[in-house]
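Board notes (copied after class):
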Amino acid sequence: MRVLMFGWEFPPKIYGGLAVASYGITKGLSLQNDVQTIFCLPKPCGEEESFLKIIGMNQVPIVYKDLDYDYVKSRMPNYMSPEDYYNFRNHIYNDFSYMNVNDMGCMEFAGGYPGNLHDEINNFSIIAGVVARAEQFDIIHAHDWLTYPAGVNAKHVSGKPLCIHVHATDFDRSRGKVNPTVYSIEKNGMDYADCIMCVSELTRNTVIKEYHQDPNKVFAMHNAVYPLSEELQNLPRPDHSKEKVVTFLGRITMQKGPEYFVEAATMVLQRTRNIRFCMAGSGDKLEDMIKMVAERGIADRFHFPGFMRGKQVYECYKDSDVFVMPSVSEPFGIAPLEAMQCGTPSIISKQSGCGEILTNVIKTDYWDIHAMADAIYSICTNPSLFNYLQQEGKKEVDGITWEKVGLRIRKLYDNLIH
């Protein structure tokens, strides 16, 4: 089976959970041996793993240029060949000479989430039409709203079934103040999709209720984690017998509820001063949180180490006694699973999708700062509770694998194709 997949992020370039999930899903599919994924990215970095075929949409021509082989070879990255370029060039389907292209007839992408994001989403979908004409595949899979237009275009071109993967909706990102442009892109993708995979029942319910979708084509497809490398497993856990460390790690935005973490920290520090709090990450609420910590008089017990990636993330988990995810609306939330892999007990909001598959965590409402503070204090001061959550949590999360997710996705693929 060949899957034409559209995504916006992929490791090693990680902006958030979308990259982690895209990797896990494709890795899980690859373990079945008879699935080949053709993964289309706006601007790959060239260091992606080779278990799948990567297409850089910035290397796909939409305007015909008469270029010789050696020149094309000199311009192609290691994950694409001159033959790929010529194959795509032979499938240009319209006159796009009015578009802003380079000397290869290709469109440039900034990568990530630039100011002209909507233009890049539109350009991505135009190029998807060329790719869908040039490649052989059985099914289309589009991740998140950024690639839904590309998926819809590929479906129009090929007639192949379209799966879209809802990692979040604008209702999650905006606390209900929905951007009408984003909503219309999401709704259009869902309307054209033959199958909608949602990262939780929470998200599935939102898709059915707010986007008016047929429940029979909407499925919960929970995320997972992949096993830690030996290097990460062997990271030491520092001795915190004198001071405990409680960590928030993620985007510091209103969706993630950072202010509730600060309020809970303030209440804990009224009981004891032997706990330090860490808010790792970046986002538009960072400055507000720094001011809030200062106003609460807890700046000497609070740390803002900034955005973390790769090994730093796992060092942060291992250096923590408690991980807290107080999200206001979290479609899934992979971070608690990663923390639990590292032996760090987790507290999550009841408004988090991952809570549907996790038992050995403490769950509180995001707004209930008293319950959150009690949970933090209990884990930090009760060794028996810490040890229980550490051991049982790790055992639980070790059974939540991307290989199992890949098998469930494959089953949906087969049902659609047949």
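Comment from the instructor: DSSP finds 16 helices and 13 strands in the chain. Residues 230-397 form a domain with the Rossmann fold fold (CATH 3.40.50.2000).
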